[in-house]
Amino acid sequence: MADKSDLRYQAGQAAGHAQVKKDEMMNRASEACQQGKEEAGGLMQQTGEQVKQMAQGAADAVKNAVGMDGSTTTSTTRTTTTKP
C-alpha cells in the first residue's frame, strides 16, 4: 500500500513541477511579446516621423518651384508699347 501512495505523491509532485514550469514559460513568452510590441511601436513612430519630414520637404520643394515659398522678393514686369 505504501508503494501506491508513494507513487501518487511523486505523481503529484511531478504535476506540480510541470505546472510551475508551464507558468514560467508562459510568463517569459508574455514578456517577450510585450517587448516586441513596444519595439514595434517605437519603430512605427520613428517611421511616421520620417514620412512626415519627407512630405514636408516635398511640399517645401513644390512651394519653392512655384514661387510660393514665402520669400519677400517681388518682381515687377513693365510693358511699354510704342506707336510707329
TrEMBL record:
Entry coiled-coil feature ranges: none
Region (Disordered): 1-40, 62-84
Comp. bias regions, Low complexity: 71-84
Entry protein name: Late embryogenesis abundant protein 29-like
Protein species of origin: Ananas comosus
Taxon lineage: Eukaryota, Viridiplantae, Streptophyta, Embryophyta, Tracheophyta
